[in-house]
């Protein structure tokens, strides 16, 4: 039986180290909407061209007088139309399972709690994670996992499966495009109760019809982000 990871994390909320050198509750952090309701996404060509997509993100931040963007958990997004990586013959994947934090390339990323490196990979399809790190953690005797996507390639060279990491230890940096999967710079942060035998990769976007299943497997990362 899959553990109730959301309840476990809620019991420890407030005890986690910060993933960034700023609080996600800061006034400089604004929610960014990437659903079809956002009129800025009505022109898919702006999404396929990463430089234009980067400008779009900047416009959305400027509108809210913010320098950092955040959001996306269980958001049914329009932005995945930019890449065939998310197409499916039955139902396209558009339900986002993590939280994205839109920050400049080079921004340091730290582990929110102690653990070990589970796996790492460069998922280098267009629109994919690019360099990816997955950590394994344990609380109250229950193991779970955290995923960090869209990193720099140089980060992968400094880590190996089984390597211990401390809470608050910088493990990576947000990568530039195109090496980050060809996205405007941001961190995709996701939690998983079970890796399902996967290594160096895990679905970050799911079919909307499977929302209940994936929400149970991948609880809200804001339970951990400080």
From TrEMBL:
SUPFAM superfamilies found in the cross-reference section: Duplicated hybrid motif (SSF51261)
Gene3D superfamilies: Glucose Permease (Domain IIA)
M23ase beta-sheet core domain span: 95-193
Protein known as: M23ase beta-sheet core domain-containing protein
Organism the protein comes from: Hymenobacter ginsengisoli
